Amino acid sequence: MTYTVENKTLADLLEIAFSRYSDRPAFSALGQTLSFSDIEEKSRSLAYWLQNESGLETGDRVAIQLPNIAQYPIVVYAILRAGMVVVNTNPMYTDREIKHQLTDSGTKAIFIFQPVLPVFNKVKDQTSIERVIEVGATDLLTGHTELSIEGNQSFTDLVGIYADKSLSKRSPISETIVLQYTGGTTGVSKGAELTNLNLVTHAEQVIDRFSNTCKPGHEIFIAPLPLYHVYAFSVNLIVFALQGNLSVLIPDPRDLDAFVKAIKPYKFTTFSGINTLLVGLSNHSGFRSLDFSNLKLTISGGATLTTSAAEQWYKLTGCTVSEGYGLSETSAALCLNVPGQEEIGTVGLPLKDTIIDIRSEAGESLPDGQEGEVVAKAPQVMKGYWNRPEETQKVMTEDGFFRTGDIGKRMPSGTIKIVDRLKDLIIVSGFNVYPNEVEDVLTQHPGIVEAAVVSEPDERAGEKVCAYITAAQELNEEAIIEHCREHLTSYKIPKKLVVMDELPKSTVGKILRRELRTGM
């Protein structure tokens, strides 16, 4: 499927897909399945309200604070079709976090999940929000949204009354259509401006990489990762929607029993996850009993895929794992393994029209095999950070490359291996220790389920390596250290080992090293 990105907006391409695959199932959630025709009708009605009845204007920012339910894609497509800007927002945010994102973006309206209204209401008056649209979990099943606050709007009212109306012209291809906020792991959370061109090009690149694996209109994709995250947003709401494939949305992937029950009726063909989720599912008895005979593609991203997780998944499902790499600033992916031809331990080859360079601290290009900062020049790289020109300048080189802040190297095959985050680097007596490498070795021990490696101050060496692990059985510390000695040079071996019931994780499932560094 080839797109002419020069004259088609993302909304244009989505409307083509809605028409082409009108009778095909588009999204399933909470036991309900909506066709592409259903999605088109409901999003059209909502888009008309946004354009003509809401008091908003083209280019205004509209926030979405919802879990993975079928209302999410309807709202996203409505905002895009109305010519406004999507602001993806984590429903688990605290009042401080939501206030920052809404005020920083200047958001005018918000589609909000009713259970999180109390948090939002604490800071509403400190934002520029003019319209609040309440969304309930079972709205689409009952056809009714019971408003909790007078003056707010009802989601179900807005998706049912304007479906026969025509929409006005939308923003051009160069315009920003999504503000994708960074996780804030390296400072204040910033809004990456993603344009029509960024997202349409990215979709074309990913479809090209999956062209020999995925067939338009025939795939069933299990989508447990939150749609507010750039990974699932790009893959499920854009790439697989444009191809007319079904996404089965999982509202709470941490509830593995409910997860397994939700996907059991489907002959799923594609699956996405991150390392911690793949490990958790592989060790879940209910998941292990499912039928994997149709599964042909598993994508991993968002965090480093360990060798043990990839091997465990393949042994259980018979499906290899295609690890990819990207950031909020790059519309999701820069690199992605070719399905079935994966080089485990790498993030694969750069996508089409994507140039990856490895550079020294002085900004010089490094030869293959040498470690340096990963920089990228590609059409999916953001326009810049919203209202932060100085921050944008910091991450862009003079010759137009985006600085990722990640350490990597190019392998002999041309694939890219991500070594670690620059900020997570541990320096022991002047030697570099990359947590990802130590974590990968630790999780190859049969008794260790998950591992996180961080630094602590050390009077003699400057820093020391500290490992936090979860275990499947009672462990002997000396046996673990001996396992590390077999695979790691001496300065990389953990000097401190802590067994925990659970490692701290973000809502996406990433292990939060920073919380371990600060002593929880």
Q: Which stretches of 5+ consecutive residues score pLDDT under 50?
A: none
Number of strands: 26
Please identify the top-level CATH class of the largest domain: Alpha Beta
Query: How many DSSP helices?
Result: 17
Biggest sheet strand line-up: 2-1-11-10-12-13-14-15-16
Tell me the CATH architecture of the largest domain.
3-Layer(aba) Sandwich
Through-space gap between termini? 48 Å
> CATH superfamily of the largest domain, called what?
ANL, N-terminal domain
Strand portion, in percent?
Answer: 25-35%
Characterize the main sheet. Answer: 9 strands, mixed
Q: What percent of the residues sit in helical stretches (DSSP H or I)? A: 25-40%
Gross geometry: globular
Task: Determine Rg (CA atoms, Å).
Answer: 23 Å
Describe what you observe in this structure.
There is one protein chain. The chain is of the alpha/beta class and 520 residues long. The protein folds into 2 domains: 10-407, 3-Layer(aba) Sandwich (Rossmann fold), CATH 3.40.50.12780; 425-517, GMP Synthetase, Chain A, domain 3. The protein is built from 17 helices and 26 strands. The strands form 5 sheets. A 9-stranded mixed beta sheet has the order 2-1-11-10-12-13-14-15-16. Strands 7-6-5-3-4-8-9-19 form an 8-stranded mixed beta sheet, with helices on both faces. Helix 13 (307-317) links the parallel strand 13 and strand 14. Helix 1 (10-20) packs antiparallel against helix 2. The longest helix is centred in the first third of the chain and has 17 residues, at 36-52. The radius of gyration is 23 Å and the shape is globular.
